[in-house]
Specification:
By secondary structure, the protein is mostly helical. The protein is built from seven helices and five strands, in the order ααααβββββααα. It has a three-stranded antiparallel sheet. Helix 1 runs antiparallel to helix 6.
Length: 208
């Protein structure tokens, strides 16, 4: 129960960080738009610290996988998994146990691209490595201003350049689904039925 509460707390922290960024982007964008058609000078909008914000966000996202792995290791204590393990290794273990066509195996397989992408973003940003780009508001040749965007090409994980805010919006729903369904499958695969013995007291008529 405590480990499940840890995940809920990590999700709440992540959501707070995401909402903080989204509010800032909206504020800056609206301020720019309000001045755009007025006869006043204005600068290209800027978040200012978009990369730092993303580093924090993807660190928090990575903590969710670690918390989920803590729960997984309770169900598979003898399979070489630790809190620092990741879903690709977990997938290899359950594929071997249950087979490629098993519903649990197929579910974990469906999460791998997302989980690898988040892990790649976290590592590249946290260690300031090449392969990740966080773009602030950007003026393009036709004089339009593009909203902040994100791009990744790091150790086999690839994310085409896309809206940063739209990408961040999918994190919480994806993690909620992954955590819920993983726990459901863990419980289903490790359920141990028990026999309940019921004792019924004889009625007064039976005792006569």
């Amino acid at each position: 129960l405590n480990l499940t509460l840890d995940i809920i707390q990590e999700l709440a922290i992540l959501e707070s960080e995401i909402q903080s960024y989204l509010s800032k982007e909206k504020e800056v964008s609206e301020e720019y738009e309000s001045k755009r058609d007025k006869p006043v000078s204005y600068a290209i909008p800027s978040i200012g610290n978009a990369k730092n914000r993303c580093t924090t966000i993807f660190q928090k996202a990575d903590h969710i996988e670690q918390s989920l792995m803590k729960i997984i290791t309770l169900f598979y204590p003898n399979d070489g998994l630790t809190q620092q393990s990741h879903f690709p290794k977990f997938y290899q273990i359950i594929e071997k146990k249950y087979g490629e066509k098993d519903s649990f195996t197929e579910f974990v397989n469906s999460t791998l691209e997302f989980m690898k992408t988040i892990r790649g973003l976290r590592n590249a940003l946290d260690h300031q490595l090449n392969g990740v780009e966080i773009y602030d508001f950007e003026l393009v040749p036709n004089s339009d201003v593009l909203a902040p965007s994100i791009e990744l090409d790091f150790k086999g994980s690839k994310l085409e350049r896309q809206s940063l805010s739209e990408f961040l919006k999918v994190l919480i729903p994806n993690y909620i689904n992954i955590c819920e369904m993983t726990i459901v499958h863990l419980a289903g695969r490790n359920f141990v039925p028990t026999i309940c013995l019921l004792y019924t007291s004889p009625s007064p008529r039976d005792r006569q």
